[in-house]
Amino acid sequence: MKAPVRVAVTGAAGQICYSLLFRVANGEMFGKDQPVILQLLEITPALKVLEAVAMELNDCAFPLLHGIVPTDSPEVAFKDADYALLVGAKPRGPGMERSDLLKDNGKIFSALGKIVDKVASKNIKIVVVGNPANTNAYILSKNAPSINPRNITALTRLDHNRGLHQLAAKVGGKVSDIKKMLIWGNHSTTQVPDITYATINGKAAPTVVNDDAWTRDAFIPTVAKRGAAVIAARGASSAASAANAVVDHMRDWVLGTAEGDWTSMAVSSDGSYGIEKGLVYSYPVICKNGDWTIIPNLPVNDFIKAKMKESEKELQEERDTCKDLL
Ligand code: NAD
Ligand code: LMR
């Protein structure tokens, strides 16, 4: 049996975590041979609910769950953490943009960054889920200078999965028929879902779809605005699908992307595709041996390029509005 890994999870008594924690404890994120210790952070008023979550986790008798540490102390939650799932943050309500959350949520991530810097494993791998996820990851990274920015990522896998479903539904196929779809940019309405390089059962997706107007006027906006559509229907933001995307993101990062495919992750830009270095930007990546690599040299058409720049501009503006947190 492998030694357990320590997984810090914030917002552990919230909606997303009510799906997420059970799947992590069941081995779906780190593998069926990898025990975990869950270090669960909440704000003090939510400790009672957190206690109930811990009771339910224990009552599942998951063989891989080797310990639970419920706490309202970030120092305890992040102590020696190998992985961190940063969910704890305010969700938006109807009529709000995710960037409207920056003022409140940005502070959470600057404070956490300083603590991660002090107490976590120096090799910690982090995914930021709390919105606006890309800029929160940027803020966290600036406040945790001893952690390699490559290890601080943000979630665009939910957008990626949404894109897979929309494309499969359009052609009457299965999501498993599709490879190499991708999301560029920010986890916001400026994101750029892109099927240019995608294949459906090995055939070029744009040829199979054969409907550029649908791609431009239906596919892209539907995926980009899906979060708001779920809020309108549910009265609260997506939770189970978000949790599923966090599982997919971390599992692929740690255990590797599927052969012959790539995925979408928001990572610290190295300047690829002309995007400002250091911004946390969603790219197509492959993961191997616990590391990610941006797919290089894809020929980007002018329509997509212009949209990628718009999303970069939005991230620059978000960054500029929270200079006091960096
Ligand atoms: P929720 O309100 O149900 O849960 C959030 C939890 O975080 C609450 O229990 C709250 O007490 C806790 N919390 C608040 N501040 C905290 C802090 N400083 N430290 C630790 N815990 C803290 O919300 P949710 O539905 O679970 O969503 C959480 C976040 O995830 C929101 O910001 C939401 O917008 C975002 N989200 C992102 C994606 C994505 O794809 N990136 C998808 C869905 C939701
Ligand atoms: C989502 O994409 O579902 C989340 O980011 C929640 C939101 O505010 O849209």
* CATH topology description of the largest domain: L-2-Hydroxyisocaproate Dehydrogenase, Chain A, domain 2
Number of helices: 11
Q: What's the architecture of the largest domain in CATH terms?
A: Alpha-Beta Complex
Task: Give the low-pLDDT segments.
Answer: none
* Beta-strand fraction estimate: 15-25%
Taken together, the total number of domains comes to: 2
Shape: globular
- Rg, alpha carbons: 19 Å
Structure description:
The longest helix is centred in the C-terminal third of the chain and has 20 residues, at 302-321. Helix 1 (15-25) packs parallel to helix 10. The chain is α/β, with parallel strands linked by helices and 326 residues long. It has helices at 15-25, 47-59, 74-78, 102-119, 133-142, 157-171, 205-209, 212-224, 226-234, 240-255, 302-321, and strands at 5-10, 36-41, 65-71, 83-86, 125-128, 152-154, 178-179, 182-184, 192-194, 199-200, 203-204, 263-268, 280-288, 291-294. The protein has two domains: 5-154, NAD(P)-binding Rossmann-like Domain (Rossmann fold, 3-Layer(aba) Sandwich), CATH 3.40.50; 157-320, Alpha-Beta Complex (L-2-Hydroxyisocaproate Dehydrogenase, Chain A, domain 2), CATH 3.90.110.10. Helices cover 41% and strands 19% of the residues. The protein is globular. It contains eleven helices and 14 strands. The protein has a six-stranded parallel sheet with strand order 3-2-1-4-5-6. The chain has a three-stranded antiparallel sheet with strand order 7-10-11. It has a three-stranded antiparallel sheet with strand order 12-13-14. The protein binds nicotinamide-adenine-dinucleotide and (2S)-2-hydroxybutanedioic acid.
